[in-house]
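Async update (no meeting this week)

Hi team, since we skipped the sync, here's where things stand on the single-chain job. The sequence we agreed to prioritize is pasted below, unchanged from the tracker. I ran it this morning and attached the output directly underneath so nobody has to dig for it. Comments welcome in thread, and please keep replies under the output.
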Amino acid sequence: MALKVLHIVILASVKYMLTLPYAMIIGMEYKYAILALLGGGIGGFLFFYYLSKPVLKGWRALLPQICQRVPVSIKQRVQLFCSSKNKKPRKRFTRRKRFLVKVKTTYGLWGIIIATPLFLTIPVGAFLANKYYSRRKNIVFYMILSIVSWGMVYSGIILLFPRIFFQ
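Output:
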């Protein structure tokens, strides 16, 4: 039982939306599934929120050293990545980057808070919240409130439609 709870906590810290139905499908008790979902979601958010700033600082510090030690055989492939600071490489926009920019510009802070457990994953939402809104006073509280609220919505759906998960 402890391994199931640990498994659900780890899964909830990354893929929040899929965790509660998965916990019900593998036969976990409802109260433990809810506690593992909330603990994993909140713990995952706090972990990724406070980890993202040092990781970005470390990456920026290591990037010049990494680019100096790139083997000659792949130097052309990473030329844009390792170009000098004066010449900025051309940005490539993928679907995911466009979606993230659209969420940030259109919906702002509240869009990130609401969409993190639902559409974005917990690590991506924590990274965006830390990168763009870390100076806001209650960002951590609002994100935890969003995670708990979505957990209640998911649990309500499972209680309303039990035949889907309890066969």
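Quick observations from my side:
The mean pLDDT is 82.
Helices lie at 2-12, 16-25, 30-68, 95-118, 122-133, 139-160, 162-165.
Reply here if anything looks off.
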